Every structure is written in structure tokens, then in C-alpha cells.
UniProtKB/TrEMBL annotation:
PROSITE patterns registered for this protein in UniProt: ZF_RING_2, ZF_TRAF
Keywords from the UniProt entry: Cytoplasm, Metal-binding, Zinc, Zinc-finger
Gene3D superfamilies linked: Zinc/RING finger domain, C3HC4 (zinc finger)
Superkingdom, natural source: Eukaryota
InterPro entries hit by this protein: Sina-like_RING (IPR049548), ZFTRAF1 (IPR039338), Znf_RING (IPR001841), Znf_RING/FYVE/PHD (IPR013083), Znf_TRAF (IPR001293)
Domain TRAF-type: 159-217
Species, as recorded: Pan troglodytes
Gene Ontology, cellular component aspect: perinuclear region of cytoplasm
This protein's name: Zinc finger TRAF-type-containing protein 1
SUPFAM superfamilies, sorted: RING/U-box (SSF57850), TRAF domain-like (SSF49599)
The family this protein is said to belong to: Belongs to the ZFTRAF1 family.
Protein's cellular compartments: Cytoplasm, Perinuclear region
Amino acid sequence: MSGAEEAGGGGPAAGPAGSVPAGVGVGVGVGAGPGAAAGQAAAAALGEAAGPGLPDEAGLAGARQLQLQEAAGDPDAPPKKRLRAAEAAEAAAAAAAAGSGKLEERLYSVLCCTVCLDLPKASVYQCTNGHLMCAGCFIHLLADARLKEEQATCPNCRCEISKSLCCRNLAVEKAVSELPSECGFCLRQFPRSLLERHQKEECQDRVTQCKYKRIGCPWHGPFHELTVHEAACAHPTKTGSELMEILDGMDQSHRKEMQLYNSIFSLLSFEKIGYTEVQFRPYRTDDFITRLYYETPRFTVLNQTWVLKARVNDSERNPNLSCKRTLSFQLLLKSKVTAPLECSFLLLKGPYDDVRISPVIYHFVFTNESNETDYVPLPIIDSVECNKLLAAKNINLRLFLFQIQK
């Protein structure tokens, strides 16, 4: 989800003495359910008991535990979130019973994302009231609001959120990067900023592949067993005919990968090539059941007038209820032609955009009677990348058109 990062400043400036800085994220809670108001009221009561200044540690811990218990018992919350909330509530209760937990555990409950209740792995965004959201949840909230034609709001305080209203909290990002995290292979703890390097390069238990995988060895295992395996690997002793069978299968896979690039290079040799930047804008159908779709203004390429349309999840009635998000698009020829117009076309990401799209070439013969293609998939890597596009006010892509002349 690191692709959702934007350049931005840290949290707001500190307020007057006795106030809580918005960037600290003291009011961390969970999504809005029926008990959200009760949790906030309990937090306020505990804060008042501590005096007119900052709430004491016991007050914050009590409010946090109440909010976690409400999230764990909310039937509308996702199962994963309820499980995490239940685990966090048990940990908070255990820490309260013991008097005080470790500093890392207390910071975890303060710095975690208010939506997924997990520590952010990359960017941390905050609403105007200081509630924290990881980049993935922040983009997902914006995309869901776009699908439902609503204004996105913070799940804690219901204030409006958007890319312009929210900013990154650099102090929280740096604090999270220094918190210890457990390696998934050796179970040792490292600062989060060093964990990725440890898991990729240093951990003796990390999963590795045999160096003879190029000739078909399928072995996967811990790094400390690699030397022993390679000394006993049977693939170097295989006969030439056995190796040729393995290499033939690998060559077929490689040829499929190269076919796309060869097709693109052959298209670049065509006489008539055109490209343009296109901007999809969101609209709603006027039918009894309104659906979200996207459309570009008319544009001219290859001396012809065109329009692009796109839809979410193939016009699913309620795409906001689905975790899987896809986009498909359609190319329409708006001008009249005197002869069939055979074209190849593909959509790629626009300049200054970080969404990942795999190039796929489509072909169609346009005539006056058949002037629009079927809806074809926009080859986005996954639903996370799709949410990045949906969260934006407009979708900016680049269209390439190649006219095939016989």
C-alpha cells in the first residue's frame, strides 16, 4: 500500500498549554457503531476525572478498553476487525490488571490505525481531529465513499476526510518505524525500519530457492539448509534429455511473456500512431437503480473523434459491498468513417501517477454500424490499485491507438 503515499507535512502545530496535539492520536478508537458515542462519552468522563488538563494514563487506558470491547461486539464490523479488537481488548485488560504493560504495548494501542486496528506499515494519515488511519484504510474509505456517492468521513469523529483535508503524520510514521516487530521466520524482534532488510537478506530462517531452480529444481526451504541441499541436489546429475524436457517447459513460459513485448514493438512500426491523455469523470445513471460509471470528454486521435467509458465491477449493483474491485472500459468511435477502421489500442497509467497497470493490447474493427467495443478489463494489478483510482476525483490514463493498414 506504499503506493498511496503523498508528499505532505506532519501533524498540526501544537495548541495552547493543556490541550492535546492532534498529531498524537490520543483519541484513537474504532469504527462508528452504535456504541461509538458511548465510548467517547466514557473517554470524556474519565478525562474529566483526571482534571482540567490532559487525561491521566488510567483514563486513556479505560477509554481505549471500552472502545475495543465495543468493536469486538459490533456485529456490523468485519470479522477480522472484531478478532483484532477482541485480542487487543484482552491485552488491554491484562495490562490494566498488571498495573501497566510494556511501553511498546501502550504505544501500539495509541498509534494503531483506527480502522483496521493494526500498526501502519507505510504512510499514516490523520483527520482534522487527529485520528490516525493507515494508507490502505484511508484510500479504501475514499473509494467506498465515491462508490456510494457520499462524502468520506472519519470512522471515529465523522468529520469530513479527503486528500486535501487530511495530511500525513510524519512523527507517528517515525515512531511506528522504531517499534519492535517480530520476524515471521526466526521470531526474533527488530525495529520495524530494519525488519524488511532482515527478512530479505540476513535472517537464517528466511525461505530461499535452490540455485539449480534454473534447471527445474523446485526446492524451497530455510536459508541455513541451502548449502546442505545444494550439495545433495539431484538436478545437476540429470541426463541431457531430462534437462531438455525441463528447459522446454521453461522456454514456453518465457515465450508467452515475450509475446506481449514483441507485439508492442511491432505496433510501434506502424505508420499511423496516436496517443492522448484521457480523464475519466464519475457519473450516475438515470435509471431506477442508479449505478456509477465513468466517461471521458470527446477527444481526437488519428483524425477521428472518440470517447472512453468505464464501469466498476461490470456495473455491479452495490460494488461498495464487495472487497474485490475491478474496472473495465469501452472505446467508442463518434465520427463517421467511409471505410472500416481497424485499430489496436491499449491503456496505460498517466504521467505522475503511481498506479500499476499491466499493458494489454486489444483489437477492433470500427464501422458506422459497429462503432463501440465490448467492455474489456482494465488490467490493474489488484483491488488495492483499483481503490487508488476510485479514491481520486478523476481517473487520468494514457490511451495509445494504432491504425492497421493492409
